Amino acid sequence: MTFKIFPFVCLVLISINSVFAESGKPNVVFFLVDDFGWGALSSMGSDFHETPNIDQLAKSSMAFTDGYAACTVCSPSRAAILTGAYPGRTKLTDWIAGHKRPYAKLSVPDWNMKMEHERILLPEALKEAGYATSFIGKWHLLPIKDEELMKDHFPESHGFDQNIGGREWGQPKGRGKYFHPFDMPNMTSKEGDYLTDRLTDYAVEFIEKNQDNPFLLYFSYYTVHGPLQAKSDLVEKYKAKWKSGKYKHRNPVYAAMVQSLDESVGRVLNKLDELGIADNTIVIFTGDNGAVGTNYCGGLKGAKALSHEGGVREPFFIKGPRIEAGTSSVPVIATDFYPTILDLAGLDLKPEEHEDGVSLKPLLHRTGKITERALYWHYPHYHKTNPYGAIRKGDYKLIEFFEDGSLELYNLRNDQSEKNNLAEKLPEKAAELLKDLKEWRISVEAQMPTPNPKFDPAKDKKKQ
């Protein structure tokens, strides 16, 4: 008799939990992947990688085909998500601590290597509203030139209740790299542990612990940033797969890392289902910048650190209560996540904080549109490219290179891969966008590179 009643009791408890969850604030799970190209998912063009869990997430989400990171390198992009402000505005414009080019034609500005405490960041805003907040994975937002100042800029000082693995590193650097031992904050591990799996253990544990309260799980993966290291059984699997036919992608280690990422996402989503809280959870999946190689950018021009679409266009999926699955071609950018999450959670927006983001709720709920606007990028640094700025307005994208003022203009509707530079064919459109870009830089007080008195082409070439 007891055995027969027990499943019924469990079903009632799960139902009560679901009803309770639906009446309260939604949970937020934010997946941020490192160096992830626009075409690295099997649902977005890869015929070699296997990503069934992320593909299913994309299918059940609003997927933005023109979703952008705020920068082509990691630290500025990550700060833009948390602040809702463009890197040009916050002056955090390069990966920390950036490249040194003392003899280049331009001197880079004295930029910012931290997020200011005067700003209320996304996790702080949610914490104010009663959310438990967890940061797991890569941080890379510490002013490493000042060890004393570093202490005040770990995740715990920026609104997160816990920090698992976040430090100044932009990639795993412990003795084992992606394998035990990790040498990362607040983590334990044993022989044979793989970093992505171990971080997922902590993510699942946090969800279980906070299932009855609203929570923010900010899962910021180290993967698929180098060094490329993966579990041996998965590497062998993809080596065998490669021998069986011809594929667009061909790196078994990279493919194995992508599969571990997918399995991690699957474990987190399955835990939400198991606990009966999936229907009251906002799930976001995106990347911080393009892949290191153009081969993983889905046919887009460029890659990480480069000015073209391959460096900034990312998977951009949002799933949650009342969000209808489908696709949208409206251009959106990472600064939009902050106000969107607040709006979806029924919280007051903070426009004085997320200055450069807009809520995407009207698009997600299909209740309206967002105001047409331009998107901007500002990178006054050297990193595989010359310093540049860019603007996307409507179908057109203009890139301005600061060394010589040269321009590139593309119609992304007709030329997504940016093969045809229209700057000379459409000089009026180029001039219009350049004017807008320059006015925007003035409005946010963006820092510009300046002529370098030590410029020496011969010495600079040796440094590259």
Compact summary:
With about 475 residues, the protein is α/β, with parallel strands linked by helices. The chain is about 30% helix and about 15% strand. The protein folds into two domains: about 25-370, Alkaline Phosphatase, subunit A (3-Layer(aba) Sandwich), CATH 3.40.720.10; about 380-464, Arylsulfatase, C-terminal domain (2-Layer Sandwich), CATH 3.30.1120.10.
Word description of this protein:
- With 464 residues, the protein is an alpha/beta fold.
- The chain has two domains: 26-369, 3-Layer(aba) Sandwich (Alkaline Phosphatase, subunit A); 378-463, Arylsulfatase, C-terminal domain (2-Layer Sandwich).
- 31% of the residues lie in helices and 15% in strands.
- It contains 14 helices and 16 strands.
- The strands form four sheets. It has an eight-stranded mixed sheet, with helices on both faces. Strands 12-13-14-15 form a four-stranded antiparallel sheet, with helices on one face. Strands 3-11 form a two-stranded parallel ribbon.
- Strand 13 and strand 14 form a beta hairpin.
- The radius of gyration is 22 Å and the shape is globular.
- The model is unreliable at 1-23 (pLDDT under 50).
